Amino acid sequence: SFVLIAIPIIFLFLLFFVSSFKKETVIQKFAKLVEPDIKPKALDYTRKLTYIWAGFTFLNTLVSLATVFMPEKVWALYNGCISYLLVGSFFAIEYIVRIKFKRKYDC
Which regions in the chain score pLDDT beneath 70? Predict the structure, then answer.
């Protein structure tokens, strides 16, 4: 069960982490799909955002793995609910920051 629940969490971490070493990160690729003429300032923002997501998902993965050694209820609550709420909240906060960034820098 742990493996099935942890796969999406670990996948997200690997996705962001591995792409951070490439010329174009996964977030930059998505941004270019939405905005083909994306400005350099926005590309810089998306690269930094990839590092932030990689760090967040790494910490989330560590907590997820730590819950394996805790009571089953704690493990189930974190991996089946809290972890996903954290990811959703992180995305929502980033979306608000992105809107403010785009307005501030006109990109």
Answer: 1-3, 5
